[in-house]
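Methods: holo model generation. Sequences were used as deposited, without trimming of termini or removal of tags, and paired with ligand SMILES retrieved from the corresponding compound records. Each pair was processed once, and we did not select among multiple samples. The sequence and zinc ion SMILES for this entry were:
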Amino acid sequence: MESTADAQPLIVTPNVRIDRILETTLPMFGLDEFFANYDPAVHPVVTLGPDEYDAAAAKIVLSSSSYLVRVPGLVLVVDTGVGNSRDRLRPMFRQMDTDWYEQLTALIDPDDVDVVVSTHLHMDHVGWNTRLDGGQWIPTFPRARYLFNRLEIDALGDDSVTQSLARNGDFVADSITPVFDAGLAEVFDAPLELTAHLRLEPGPGDTAGHVVVRLVDEGRTVALITGDVFHHALQFEDPALTSRFSSLPDEAVATRKRVFAESADSGVPLLAGHIAAHPALYLEREGDRFRVMG
Ligand SMILES: [Zn+2]
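and the model returned the structure below.
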């Protein structure tokens, strides 16, 4: 398979380096299928590029991104995609075969990763927590601490997770349970400062325990890794547009507005989970809407 790796790091400052691993970019969902409150009169798709909307398929295009973060004393992986070889129920995720692991190992030895964190425990953010080895799911990062927000672990028995498992297949069994079985899991409460350069902050909405990763250097934020605070370009123009798969829609809108405002007001780039068109997003205001600069 042809590598989809980015040639250059996304962010380089004196103490922070961030590389992206791009697992997939695919037309995935119809507009009504994905958004709970889509209105064609309010959210026209004619302005969207082909890496945002596939007009022939009538589906929004979503990518799946992971981030490798290096700060002094700590190597972190944020979000681990869908993963290969999984018995997922949706055909687009079933038995995927991407070069995610090859992209990773071109950047770093998995033994050198200190911490793994998922912005939230949805199927498409935990997959490469594990890999298949001799028919067993084993941790991809054998020396890492895998951090799980207590709110996400507490929610695993709730209706929203049960529904997610029913839609997707049992990703907990192959992507989360083996990490606990290996003794590599640690439960944390957000906010959590991992180093002076790296903080995990609450960003509730897509799930109750969703976190945003803040990178700080020389006293200022140099990037926010935003997971599923937003999913698609249509939400810049209308932050109230919300995914059907978000557990807490009102909190999702509030978090999205807060994060968009910080980017527009401070110039901080947003590194998103599913935006294909822009590896690093710089937003500006347009009234009470936002748009991507440049
Ligand atoms: Zn996602």
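The longest strand covers residues 16-29.
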